[in-house]
Amino acid sequence: MLSAASLIGISCIAITLFRNLYAVIATQATIGITGVIFGPSIAAISLGMAGHNRLALRVGRNEIFNHAGNVSAAVLASLVGYFIARRWIFYMVAVMAIPTIISALLIKEEDIDHSLARGAKPKDDSDGERISSFTVLLTDRRISTFALVVTLFHIANAAMLPLAGQYLAYGKTKGATL
C-alpha cells in the first residue's frame, strides 16, 4: 500500500508537469493499476486484525470511513479547483497520499495474523490451517465469473458518472470543478 499511494501521488504530480498525451496515458495507467491494490490490501489487513468473526463489523466501519473520505475529498477537490486552480486538484491528491502512507505505517505488524490475512482458516478449526495457492485465482470458475461480471459492469456503467459530470460542466469553465 505504501508504494501504491506513493505512485499515485507521484503520477498526479506528473500529470501537471508533463502535459503530452503519452505522459498522461502512462500516468493514468499507473494510477489505475496501483489503485486496485487498496481494496484487497485493506480487506486482507482487516481480516488479519479482526478475524473471521468480527470481519463484517470491521468492513462496515471501513466502508463508513471510505465513503466519508470520498465525499470529503470530492468537496475539497471542487473547492480547490474553483478557488485556486484546476491543476491543484492533482496536487491535493498527492498531498492526500501522505496521510494514507502514515496510516499504513501506524499499523503494527504484530497486530496482524498473517495466516488469517491470507485467507487461512482459524487455528482452532478442525481442518487445521490451509491457505489456498495463487493458482486458485486462475482455476476457480466462480472467481473468473465474478471478475468477468465486474469488468462488464465497469465497461457499461462506471464511465457514465464522469460523462454526466462533463455534460453538466460543459460551457462553464470557471465553475466546472464545483
Total number of helical segments?
8
Helix-and-strand structural type: mainly alpha
Query: Which sheet architecture does the biggest sheet show?
Result: none
Shape: globular
SSE succession: HHHHHHHH
Structural descriptors:
178 residues; mainly alpha
Notes on the structure:
This protein is mainly α. It is built from 8 helices and no strands. The protein has helices spanning 2-17, 21-35, 38-83, 88-105, 114-117, 136-139, 141-158, 160-169. α1 (2-17) runs antiparallel to α2 and α3 (38-83) runs antiparallel to α4 (88-105). It starts with a helix and ends in a 9-residue tail after the last helix. The model has no long low-confidence stretch (mean pLDDT 86).
Helices, strands, pairings?
Elements lengths: L1 H16 L3 H15 L2 H46 L4 H18 L8 H4 L18 H4 L1 H18 L1 H10 L9
Helix pairs in contact: 1-2, 1-4, 3-4
Task: Give a quick precis of the structure.
This protein is mainly alpha-helical.
